[in-house]
Amino acid sequence: MRIEILAAALLSIVLGATGQLFLKLGATRLFAMPRQDGVLGLLRDFIMTWQLSLGLLFYGSSAFVWIYVLSKVNLSVAYPMVGLSFVVVLGLSVLVLGETVKLGQIMGCGLILTGIVMVTRG
């Protein structure tokens, strides 16, 4: 895989993982708000929660970059790289959200990375 395609795939993965982080932050904030307006109030608060908007922007940007990657690489090679998102999200969860990591999660990430190397190198 050419370096620019690999870079685009990694960019897509980081954008998607960052989008997930902001969606989590926004969802936590959205459902912590007291609400009496029913569904319309929820929709208004959804629109006004900037973390959700930013999360969707990152996630959408990730999709656009990923479409470029798919145009250049076989799906059977490209798609396993999405597994990197588990590793990136785990790291962001620890660094930004203060979540704790268990040994099984670390071992699972190691297996994911091993599998990605095996698939992309053929």
The main sheet comes to: none
Radius of gyration: 17 Å
Fraction in helix:
over 70%
Structural class: mainly alpha
> pLDDT under 50 segments (min length 5)?
none
β-strand percent reads under 5%
Number of helices: 6
Number of strands: 0
The SSE string, one letter per element, is HHHHHH
What overall form do the CA principal axes indicate? flat
The termini sit apart by: 11 Å
Q: Report the average pLDDT across residues.
A: 92
Could you explain how this protein is built, in words?
- It is a single chain.
- This protein is an all-alpha fold and 122 residues long.
- The protein has helices at residues 3-30, 38-48, 50-72, 75-78, 84-95, 103-121.
- α5 runs antiparallel to α6.
Question: Quick summary of this structure?
Answer:
The protein has 122 residues and is mainly alpha-helical. The chain has 6 helices and no strands. α1 runs antiparallel to α3 and α5 runs antiparallel to α6.
